[in-house]
Amino acid sequence: MAKSTATKTYSKEQILHWYREMLLMRRFEEKAGQLYMQRKIRGFCHLYIGQEAVAMGIEAAITKDDTVITAYRDHGFGLARGMSANECMAELYGKRTGSSKGKGGSMHYFSKENNFAGGHGIVGGQIPLGAGIAFAEKYNKTGNICVCLMGDGAVRQGAFHEAFNMAMTWKLPVLYIVENNHYAMGTSVERTSNVTDLYKMARGFDMPSKPVNGMDVITVFEEMKKAVKHVRSGKGPMFIEMKTYRYRGHSMSDPMKYRTRDELNQYKDQDPLIGLKHYCDKHKLADDTDFDKLEDEIKEIVDACVTFAETSPDPDPSELYEDVYIGDYPFVTE
Ligand SMILES: Cc1ncc(C[n+]2csc(CCOP(=O)(O)OP(=O)(O)O)c2C)c(N)n1
Ligand SMILES: [Mg+2]
Q1: pLDDT (tens digit, 9 = 90+) per residue, 143-172?
Q2: What are φ and ψ of residue 148, in 5° steps?
Q3: Which helix (H) or strand (E) holds 68?
Q4: 3-state helix, strand, coil in the chain (%, to 5)
Q5: Beta bridge partners of 183
Q6: Which atom of ligand 1 is nearest to the CA of 179?
Q7: Which residue CA neighbors atom 7 of ligand 1 most closely?
Q8: In the CATH hierarchy, which fold is given to the domain comprising 12-310?
Q9: Is the pTM for the entire model greater than 0.90?
Q10: For residue 155, which ligand has an atom nearest its CA?
């Protein structure tokens, strides 16, 4: 069971909201996984199942005007930011009604209206982009910050070091977060470097950093509140290591020979959804009736988004050369 380090008791409304959002991510992706096996969804598909508390806790600690940018494991963040299940499922199907008009697929969710800057397939490619977005926020004096996520594989990229150096030198309002789910494809963190406590990697830049239990949404929320306050105050970036775990394989075809069932079960015992149920039990906030109601509600949303995706039109071939290059940088305000 996830141990919460919560400093206060949260309301029923708050806890059930977090539970609902994480349940949507979970059930949406379970369905996406099934549809992929049925070959209704093609291409890449990286599931976020197990890591939901990270997206939810961060979303709860920032504002809608802040920008989030992440890697290709982006379904959880897309939904957390406020993208609809319909546009997300349609994107997986490659339909015109998808968030990227069916031309991005699983790895390339984007939503300008929800300040979600993707969805990036090049490992570590979003790290300098995060610095760039933060630079624009600072330059335009918006008071907004950029939350830039990466996987544990991305911290080994040169772009990580260059962007961290620049972000710290210019005191950019960027909150860097590594989702340490222990593996980059089938390669464990231990096999790629002597530095396995990833938060320590910020020390070479004098960037403040710390590890956080990413399996517990309340802990993520409380730690993010503090980190967001620091970054928004103009003191420069921070680096947080979220200790988390993905239950499924790296992508859809992964025999998972690099880990044991015991290891997987150890993390499933800390499941963020079960953790919140225990929290509700302990504080007598909600019971099975409340959770069953949410299950029904989410099932309806997920069923409806599949119907929406299946009945949506394919992109027209004439759209092939549209949206290839955006000359107008969307995050710069005049
Ligand atoms: C520059 C680059 N090199 C290699 C790849 C192939 N690749 C795709 S995912 C991945 C692993 C990344 O793992 P991590 O950063 O830990 O993210 P996670 O999948 O765990 O979310 C690799 C090596 C890529 N997409 N881009
Ligand atoms: Mg990883």
Answers
A1: 999 999 999 999 999 999 999 999 999 999
A2: -115, 115
A3: strand 67-69
A4: 45, 10, 45
A5: 188
A6: 21
A7: 123
A8: Rossmann fold (3.40.50)
A9: yes
A10: 1
